[in-house]
Amino acid sequence: MTQRISKYQRFKMMNPILQFFKFIYLSIKVLIIVAGGHGGTRQVN
After folding, report:
1. Predicted confidence (pLDDT) per residue in 1-45, tens digit
2. What is the rounded distance in angstroms from the CA atom of residue 9 to the CA atom of residue 36?
3. Where exactly are the transmembrane stretches of this chain (predicted)?
């Protein structure tokens, strides 16, 4: 049972699509935090 769970966890960690989605989610989170905290007046278009 534990081996099955660990295998699934490893599959989730090795899955490039999930990694990509997690990276995008974290990037957007950081961007929102940075934009809200620091660059309120500074906007790059």
Report:
1. 566 768 877 777 778 888 899 999 999 999 888 887 765 555 555
2. 34
3. 20-39
CA distance 13 to 16: 8
* Paired tokens of 30: 């950081």
Could you tell me the residue ranges of all domains in the chain? Answer: 2-37
Beta-carbon contacts of residue 13 (< 8 Å; ≥ 6 apart): 19
Environment class of 21 (CB within 10 Å of its CB; exposed 0-12, middle 13-18, buried 19+): exposed
Residue count (the chain)? 45
Residue 42, amino acid: R
